[in-house]
Task: structure prediction
Amino acid sequence: MISRHSVSLLLASLCWGTSFPITEVALRDVSAGVVVFLRFSLGTLLLFLLFRRRPHFERHSVAAGVFNAFAFGLQFIGQQFTTATKVAVLSNTFPIFTVALSPFILSERPTPRQVLSVVLGVGGITLVGNLSDLKGVNPGDVMNVMAALLYAFYMVVSKKALERVGILDFVITSGLVSSLFALTYLPVFFRVELTSTAVFSVLWLVLIPSVLGYLLYAYGISGKSAISSSVLVLSTVLFGAMTSTLFLKESLSPTESFGLLLITLAILLSA
Result:
């Protein structure tokens, strides 16, 4: 039977999956740097106002905020120099790095089942991203691999932090730190057109992927291994494909559909 922590991670991934089509809409009027900063800052401010919890500057929570902010930045900056296909594939190779990091930081050694789930999940991501398009290497590709490494660090230090602090303390602290680092993106990526579509899109990204998504993520990973959590979070791609098909009327090729099936199998193995 699937655990409640697995359900929480899947729901977090569903929240994050909605960000793919919504971000695409938001970027028509608002630059990437502004979107990232508002997601972190407004989400953290809302949680502070609702729960009146001050940041708890435990070192792993702070490190998680730094890793997450830099990962977002590298992914967005790198996307300017490469294709969306490569971004989708390379930035989601983080379960590989999570397997490598977990034994050293968390003393978690991967089981054969976990290794199989990672292989299936990353293989599915590669098919969804269209393997034939992954040709050549450019600076954007390198940035997205670095982003995947930082996402892996974010996951393992998140797990470490949640052994010491509560879920709200972790989300507020890491969100505040991410907000401060995301300030550096504003001078580089600043463009705002205050349309009703932009306002709705940003509010959705703040409330659903950021506030609700990170709360569900923190609860989920607090009761699962970092390795299994990283595979479950790959369902973000699955939900992203579903929401993009539904709202943006995008179609899936047979290869992409098979890739989503592999990701589903990986999720079932990790749940």
User: Anything to note?
Assistant: DSSP finds 13 helices and no strands in the chain. Residues 171 and 215 are 7 Å apart (CA to CA). The chain has a mean pLDDT of 84. The first helix runs from residue 4 to 17.
